[in-house]
């Protein structure tokens, strides 16, 4: 049988890993795919020191790849929203299947891209876009397809988790660890995407769509990063038996779907609390399966290439199959996507960790607990730190409550004369 011809666009971290894995494991891959898969062409601005491209066509114009009549599968690894979108749409219009690691592209333009793919009868595969090496798309879309999924929670940004782990374990400086993550190829071109939770929100948007069967709605995700986490909060959380992790969390409720990314206190004994460094993990709760956990490297050249190449093999396997019976892009048949709304953040519900600075005066604690009580918020734990200063830190853990109620309570607490500055809030989940 004729070999299947792949064109790789972008020869950076993931592109070089993909190029090398496809070459190194070519025999094993063809035994699995049933066809020989060859890298016919590479589109890149510059050569990569780890890749020997002698014997491969190299072009400086990635659109040569998308329009090359010889190419069957275009692998988009340039990143970003705009040129990547144009490249992928061009490939689709030229009848090519597409494999991408670009979560920004899928989260923001995925609905349009999948519609075009449907129209042109090609596949767009995006396993590498979420959680690097972990086959989480396949697990949810195929492995858990019997389930009504209730919620999922995950550590889905490797750079952020690497930073939090190094800060906590070694007391390292934020900027210093970020620079190391960049040198290791983990970070996005613009690392604020990692640090401010945007990358995790892209990934969560994708996971929620395939878990709940709703269109991609990145603009409705609540996004908060790790840049404001202080060492004090890390320490207080530990004292209370919790750990702070940056989580993506999505849950089905009666009124809509929660879609939120933020630092979260989780019990120190929870499996997710012990996912460290660049590792990612996603916990999925399905009504039949119960909880299942998926763990692995969330970034890096070959861990990500593992998912890119698996998608290439998947596409090759389906080339001989029934075109009308492929696994749907978003797990549910395109005509069956639901219009269940994404909930505004105000309507979501979590527990809360609150830290505030109170003047050392009688009656302050009583006023705080009264405000919480008046707003129907139950307190689970309260700690007032002993100090020689005139201000004392007070830490509270509350039971679950709607965000809007907590906003009102926090505003009332901040208005008290005895409270200095703003109240720090970190949401709590008992996973
Ligand atoms: N690095 C990771 O660990 C990782 C993991 C999962 C997903 N991703 C995603 O994979 C994609 C690639 O990431 P990366 O880390 O390999 O980035 P990178 O910056 O290392 O590589 C991108 C390459 O594409 C090239 N490029 C960009 N625009 C181009 C253009 N118009 N024409 C030709 N070449 C162009 C750049 O020169 C660069 O060499 C991104 O979408 C990223 O979000 C990365
Ligand atoms: N910048 C991303 C790459 C993997 O998607 C991360 O650190 O998780
Ligand atoms: Na994946």
From TrEMBL:
First-tier enzyme category under EC: oxidoreductase
Ranges where the ACT domain occurs: 353-431
Pathway: Amino-acid biosynthesis; L-threonine biosynthesis; L-threonine from L-aspartate: step 3/5; Amino-acid biosynthesis; L-methionine biosynthesis via de novo pathway; L-homoserine from L-aspartate: step 3/3
Reactions it catalyzes: L-homoserine + NAD(+) = L-aspartate 4-semialdehyde + NADH + H(+)
Binding site residues for NADPH: 103
Keywords from the UniProt entry: Amino-acid biosynthesis, Methionine biosynthesis, NADP, Oxidoreductase, Threonine biosynthesis
One Gene Ontology term of the molecular function aspect: NADP binding
Gene Ontology BP terms: methionine biosynthetic process; threonine biosynthetic process
UniProt key word Magnesium: no
Spans traversing the lipid bilayer: none
Record: active site: 203
The protein, known as: Homoserine dehydrogenase
Organism of origin: Neptunomonas antarctica
Lineage of source species: Bacteria, Pseudomonadati, Pseudomonadota, Gammaproteobacteria, Oceanospirillales
